[in-house]
Amino acid sequence: MPHSPEEKKRVLARVRRMRGQVEALERALEAGANCAPVLQQIAALRGAANGLMSEVLESHLREQFGQPARTAAERNERISEMTALVRSYLK
Amino acid sequence: MPHSPEEKKRVLARVRRMRGQVEALERALEAGANCAPVLQQIAALRGAANGLMSEVLESHLREQFGQPARTAAERNERISEMTALVRSYLK
Amino acid sequence: MPHSPEEKKRVLARVRRMRGQVEALERALEAGANCAPVLQQIAALRGAANGLMSEVLESHLREQFGQPARTAAERNERISEMTALVRSYLK
Amino acid sequence: MPHSPEEKKRVLARVRRMRGQVEALERALEAGANCAPVLQQIAALRGAANGLMSEVLESHLREQFGQPARTAAERNERISEMTALVRSYLK
Fold first, then answer.
1. Domain-by-domain residue ranges, chain C?
2. Which residue in the set A11, A36, A50 is minimally distant from B85, CB to CB?
3. Nearest CB to C23; choose among D11, D19, D32
4. Nearest-CA distance from C38 to chain B in Å?
5. How confident is the model at residue B91 (pLDDT cuts 50, 70, 90)?
6. Is C89 close to D39, i.e. CB distance below 8 A?
7. Which Pfam families match (chains A, B, C, D) (predicted)?
8. Confidence of residue C1 (pLDDT cuts 50, 70, 90)
9. Which CATH number fits domain B5-89: 1.10.1130.10, 1.10.8.870, 1.20.58.1000, 1.10.10.10?
10. A16-66 pLDDT, tens per residue?
């Protein structure tokens, strides 16, 4: 999950933005903000989680298949691992 | 969105737990953790966002319909607002 | 779930459109269509399911809260039922 | 999207089950069934759509990466296509 420095920078920027979103949400809930804007903030955070998940999966895909496997067994193992991740997180 | 003190306490506990989840995720990404557990952490955070969204909507429902409306117009307005929220966040 | 004739007509129109979508998807899979357009068809069907779910919930909300409850107990019961539905289907 | 005969058989079985679910839902809505079981039927259909989407993506993954690419360009093209699909359908 480190992969290229650019990818790492990108996912860290995303997760830090999410931290800011959670902190703003906490302040809004403490201040007793109205329901509608609070729901909007939660939905934005959920969207950010989906975006990060996709970024992480894409980066893993590039790492796993960006270099040819040395053996058919290795290729099959990579495919099994990737299909298991797709199955778990495609929701 | 303040509603009862118990409800407020409950949503604040949820959002603070989410802050802890985001911070743990940030540390994992900084440390270059493996893809599979990182995805699991993101999925847990997304689940927590859904849980908080539901809690906020339920609390709003109780507030809006827990007391009888004084007029039919007020009743209809509450219903319109609530159906709009359901339409936006039922995803 | 019958509610007004207009609402019934609207949900039936939605579910029939969904039947058409499933049939088109079946033909595409039988014909060995490409992966990308097949995924698009499935995503459209999933979107239609979300739309129908929202329509049904909104209609239920209007039915449950469109008339004042006769007693506080009745009002509370309606609220409990509705919050349980929101909790189950807000995904 | 045809891939192996077993995979084709499996996705066709899924889509036919979904057709049955849509038809049962249509009958329930025509008969004016209660809201809660109708929502349950819709949620089951949505779950089936997610399952089919995952099956189709997994099968595509096996097809795209099950044989070594002949060139680096071909390998990169396969990866780009797959990451685009993951980005679109991971929701």
1. 5-89
2. A36
3. D19
4. 21
5. low
6. yes
7. Trns_repr_metal
8. low
9. 1.20.58.1000
10. 999 999 999 999 999 999 999 999 999 999 999 999 999 999 999 999 999
